[in-house]
Amino acid sequence: MPNDIARHPALQQGPDSRDESFDLAPISLWKEDYSGMKRLFDQWRSEGVSDLGAWLRQDTRRAKQCAQQIKVVAVNQRTLALYEATDREHLVANLDQVFRDDMLDTFIDELVQLWNGGLDFSSYTVNYTLGGRRIDIQLSGRIMPGSEQSWDYILLAIENVTERETARKKLSRSENYARGLFEYSPISLWVEDFSQVKRLFDDLHRIGITDFRTFIDVHPEFVERCMQEIRVIDVNLQTLSMFGAEDKPALLSRLSDVFRDDMRPHFSQQLIELWNGNLLHQREVINYSLTGEAINVHLQFSVFPGHEDSWGLVLVALTDITARKKAEAYLEFLGKHDELTKLHNRAFMVDELNRLERKGPFPISVIVADLNGLKLVNDERGHAAGDALLRRVGEVLAKAVERPASVARAGGDEFAILLPGTDERGAHALIEQIRQLIDLNNQFYSGVAMSLSMGAATAVPGERLDAVLQRADGLMYEAKRAFYSAPGQERRLAGS
C-alpha cells in the first residue's frame, strides 16, 4: 500500500474495472497496479541493491518513490464505507488523510516481502477514515495469476480489526496491570500447582480413608510425598528479596532449604484443612531464607476460582512477621523479666511460687538475697553506678542458678531464688557457691565491691511457700544486720 500519499502527488489513478462480486464483497478490496514499482525494483537490483529494507530505511524518500509508482485501479463499496468516502475519486483524492503517521515501517515490510520473491504479502497497520477516525487494519495482498512478471494486477484485502485490537489492548492492559500487582506486591506471592496433592487425596478417598489426621500420624511419609508433589509456577520480586535469592531459578532450585524443620507440622495442618474442604485458610509458620535465617511468616492459602476441582492453580501469600514476632517475644520477656538485670521479675516469682505450691516437687527451698550498700552507692556515685552494681548481681545469680531453679528480682535491691526439689543442705551449698562467684566478680570489677546478704528457708510439710519466703526474708535481714555491724563496711562499699 502507498505510504503518506499526501507527499506523493504523482500517484496515478487507473480506470474503474469493478465487477459485481468485487464491488459487493463484504471486506474492503483494492485493485492496484504495481508495474511501475516492479521496474524500479529491477533498476535497483541492477545497481547492486541486495538488502531492500536497509536501503529504504537509510533514505525513506526511496520508500515514497515506491509509493508514487502505485496506481489505484479500483476499490469496492465496502472500501468507500470503511473510509467514509462518497466515491472512488473522493477517496483517491484524499489518500493523504488515509495513509499517514505510523504506516511507513509496515509499508517497507510489505515491499521487502515482494522484493524477496513472495507472491503474497501482509501487514498490520493503522489507517484513518476521511472523517479522521483511527482504524486498525489487517492488510493482505497478492499478485494475481498472470501478473507474476509485470505486477500489473495486485489485489489487496483490508479487514477492519479495530474492535478486536481494542479488546486485545484492553486485555493486554488488564494482564499487565495484574502482572504488575503480582510482581510488585509488597508481600511474597507464590503461584503453585497442588493438582498432584489433590490426586493423592482422591486415591485415599477411593480406598476408604476417612480419618485423615490419624492416617498422617501413622504414615508421616505421606506428608513428605505431598510436599514433594507441589509445583511452584511463579514467585514475585518480594519473594526473591524476602528469601535472599538472586533470581527465580536460584530460589526454585533450593526450595528444600526454604521449607524445612518447623514447616512440616504446619504443612500437616494445612493438609488437614484441605482434606476438610477448606480451600481458603491461613496460619503462622516458619520458613528459612537461603542464608539460613528463620523467617516468621503469616501464610494465606487460596485456590483460584475455577480450579476448585483440580487445585491446579493456588495462590500462597506470605507476609514477613519476623519483626512483629521479635517484638512480641520481647514484650513477653519484659512481662516476666526485669529489664535491668535480665533476671525474672516479681510477677514471674509470684506465679512460680503458686505453681510450685501446687505441683512441687518437694522439698522446696527459698533463698532471699539483698544487695548491701545500694543506697550509699546511689547517693555518692549516682544511680548509673547503682544500676551497674545491680547488673553485676544479675550476672552472678544467673550464672549460679540453673533450671529447674529460678531467680527473680523481687524489687529494688532484693532478689529471690526458688529451688524445687532442694533441701536445706542444697540451699546452703548454693549460697556458698554464690559467695564464691561474688569474690570472682569483685576481682574482675574495680571500684565498688558487691556484697549480698542472704537467708535460706526450706518448706516443712504443709507449709505455704509465702511463709517460707517470709522466713528466708527474716534470715536475710539478720545477715544484713550482722554485715552492717562490722566496722568500715559502708566506706568499703562506697569504694572510699
Features:
23 helices, 6-stranded mixed beta sheet, alpha+beta, 5-stranded antiparallel beta sheet, 15 strands, 496 residues, 49% helix, elongated
Write a structural description:
The protein is of the alpha+beta class and 496 residues long. It contains 23 helices and 15 strands. It has helices at residues 20-23, 35-46, 52-58, 61-68, 77-82, 88-93, 95-98, 104-115, 162-183, 195-206, 212-218, 220-229, 237-243, 248-252, 255-258, 263-275, 322-336, 346-359, 374-381, 383-400, 424-444, 465-485, 489-493; strands spanning 12-13, 28-33, 71-75, 120-128, 134-143, 154-160, 188-193, 231-235, 280-288, 294-303, 314-320, 364-371, 406-411, 414-420, 452-458. The strands form three sheets. Strands 1-3-2-6-5-4 form a six-stranded mixed beta sheet. A five-stranded antiparallel beta sheet has the order 8-7-11-10-9, sandwiched between helices. Helix 3 (52-58) packs antiparallel against helix 8 (104-115), helix 19 (374-381) runs antiparallel to helix 20 (383-400) and helix 20 crosses helix 21. The longest helix has 22 residues, at 162-183. The protein is elongated and about 130 Å long. The chain starts with 11 loop residues before the first strand and ends with a helix. Mean pLDDT is 89; it is low at 1-18.
Walk me through the topology.
Layout (H helix, E strand, L loop, with lengths): L11 E2 L6 H4 L4 E6 L1 H12 L5 H7 L2 H8 L2 E5 L1 H6 L5 H6 L1 H4 L5 H12 L4 E9 L5 E10 L10 E7 L1 H22 L4 E6 L1 H12 L5 H7 L1 H10 L1 E5 L1 H7 L4 H5 L2 H4 L4 H13 L4 E9 L5 E10 L10 E7 L1 H15 L9 H14 L4 E8 L2 H8 L1 H18 L5 E6 L2 E7 L3 H21 L7 E7 L6 H21 L3 H5 L3
Parallel strand pairs: 1-3
Antiparallel strand pairs: 2-3, 2-6, 4-5, 5-6, 7-8, 7-11, 9-10, 10-11, 12-14, 12-15, 13-14
Helix pairs in contact: 3-8, 11-12, 19-20, 20-21
